[in-house]
Design a protein that fits this description.
3 helical TM bundles of succinate and fumarate reductases, about 0% strand, 4 helices, about 75% helix, about 130 residues
């Protein structure tokens, strides 16, 4: 009995660094990363809310902390990530309804998400500073 030999000539070890992913893949990957980031900082945000609502001294302490430039940068990063994650999530929900399921529709949706996310990041930068 002869051993089975595959006629498939695809590479066995893929070099992911040399692959060119479509824009839809980058938007999907960053959507997941922003979700992980938001999960990690959610404890910090709940702690700050709890501290600020506990007493007047706690509120003043959180206010003073959020006035620092590093805290403003972190707050901007959180607001931008939340905006991006929400926009990308809405795109996924729209696609679940059957709108933009084609490759061209996905590319268009991904571009819209990126443009709106950049606009919101600028907006949050203006509001915070």
């Amino acid at each position: 009995m002869k051993p089975m030999v595959s006629k498939d000539k695809r590479p066995v070890n893929l070099d992911i660094g040399s692959m060119q992913l479509p824009i839809t893949a980058y938007v999907s990957i960053t959507h997941r990363l922003s979700g992980v980031f938001l999960f990690l900082v959610s404890g910090l945000m709940v702690w700050a809310l709890d501290t600020s609502l506990r007493s007047e001294e706690g509120f003043n302490s959180v206010s003073a902390t959020l006035a620092m430039p590093v805290s403003k940068a972190i707050l901007w990063l959180i607001a931008s990530a939340l905006s991006y994650h929400a926009l990308s999530g809405v795109k996924h929900i729209i696609m679940d309804f059957g709108i933009g399921e084609t490759m061209q529709g996905g590319v268009t949706g991904a571009r819209i998400v990126i443009v709106l996310a950049i606009a919101l990041a600028v907006f949050w930068g203006v509001v915070i500073w």
